[in-house]
Amino acid sequence: MDIKNRRDTSRILICSAWPYGSGIPHLGNLIGCLLSGGALTRYYRLRGYETLHVSGTDAHGTRIEYEAARTGVSPAKLVEQVHSQILEIIKTFDIAIDNYTTTESPVHKEFVVDIYRKMDANGYITTAEEERVYCTICNRFLADRLIIGRCPKCGSERAKGNQCDACGVMLEPEELSDAKCSFCGKGMVVRKRTRHWYLDLEKLSPKLRQYIASRNFRGNVKLFAGQMLEDGLRPRAITRDLEWGIPAPFVGAEGKVIYVWAEAALGYLSATIEHFRNQGEEEQWRKFWFGDDVKQVYPQAKDNIPFHAIIFPAQLIASGEGYHLPDQIAASEYLNWIGGERFSKSEGKGIYVDEAIKLLDPEYWRFYLLYDRPETHDVNFSWAELDRVINGILIDNISNLINRVLSFIERNYDGIVPSGKLDPKVAERLKVGIMEYGRAMEAGSIAAAARVVASLAVFGNEYFQQKRPWQTNDPQGVIAGFHLVKAIAVLLQPFVPRFSTAILTRMGASQGTWDEINIIAGGRKISSESFLLAKIDVAELERRYNEMKNQVG
Questions:
Q1: DSSP letters of 263-313?
Q2: Which of 31, 79, 401, 437 fits 21 for a cystine, CB–CB 3.0-4.6 Å?
Q3: 120-159 tens-digit pLDDT
Q4: pTM of the entire structure?
């Protein structure tokens, strides 16, 4: 059996959407960016690609100012606290990432100022006076996302002034009906004139159309990007009247900052630069941002699609630097709370990552979230589904095959893998499954890849049962079982890395090596040290969760 690596490029850049620095992410946030990005990073490294994964804490914007004021700390202090907590989450969840930084990084600020000066010099920045919504009670201009009202397209009552989460349409605050200030909850009674600077998306439209046509974007990404182009792109404001943020570098823009959405995605470049600068190899960042010998993958939730499919490429094009543009936007749908409700800490709905860690080993959460990653439609969390995925699939199916095969070899063959040829039927099933797994991961369909692993385990359990080596003394079932287990352990690396590593170690296999799948390991000695996954008591977890929420309430 020879499962070869396929090489279109030699490098992979994983750019996970940036968690917002106003608080701890919930499970939906985690699967929407960092956890998915970490899984893809492990996969591409397994395949031997030079892989870099960058992300960071989105540190600016009114939401940060608002939360800092509410909690009585400075915006900088709030971001520092949240950033530290997310770094701990990354460590606890074993997320593979090379540079997790913040948009407060000096490297980021320097890069943003420089690239906007280039966009301006290239004629893609315009300016105009406009009326902006102003709250007379708060005595401040209101950031778009902190204005709540009725969406003109779908009628949702909870649309924000920059985007409707219900239908995904990008908005201007003035397009909302019955708009209210999120700070004080009152109607906004005045509009004040102010000057702002814009990225001229209309002027960039022809190049953006060429770019979108050159990429094989899937499903929701193709739909969102196509709809935006069909509706017609307009200049998009990139400055705001705020104190917290990166000062706008344009003449006459004193006292204004770059709007948070207009600088956060640029952090993918600054984080890459920062990573190699920290390594003492600063110029190496260019190999991930220029030329065709790189594939860029952007794991994120669907609400980020407009920014990454249209606006971020527009910024890169407008700079005139010839940057490599995003190749794949691995966008997920939403993971919602029970019954389809949105996660809300204030309303006690949902599991936030700090709570999840207290309830269950992160290895279990990793498998559940990646296996049920919402790739084609929104998914609702349920305790029954957690039970099915962990107890039914991970333990009763996958772990069961691993333990029964390795324990059988230990008991009946003194821990020595019997020699012999692999049944062609098994070799073919493995080959097909592994190819399906690779295609799914490289399409950004992480959940589909997890299901391939589960199906291989189902096949393995059925085959082992059919061969009944405990009755026939025929080693064929044992040989096949061992090679299926070894392949499954390798394929589990992106999903449950600690469990995968423990199994591969027990089997005497190379860690994190795709080529291990091809090795016929007759005569290999397996370790007697086992690593068992215990079943979870979902009823007890739910009870503890409710108790936790009641204590907070």
A1: HHTTHHHHHHHHHHHHTT-GGGGGGGTSSSS-EEEEEEEGGGHHIIIIIHH
A2: 79
A3: 999 999 999 988 878 888 888 877 777 888 999 999 998 9
A4: 0.91
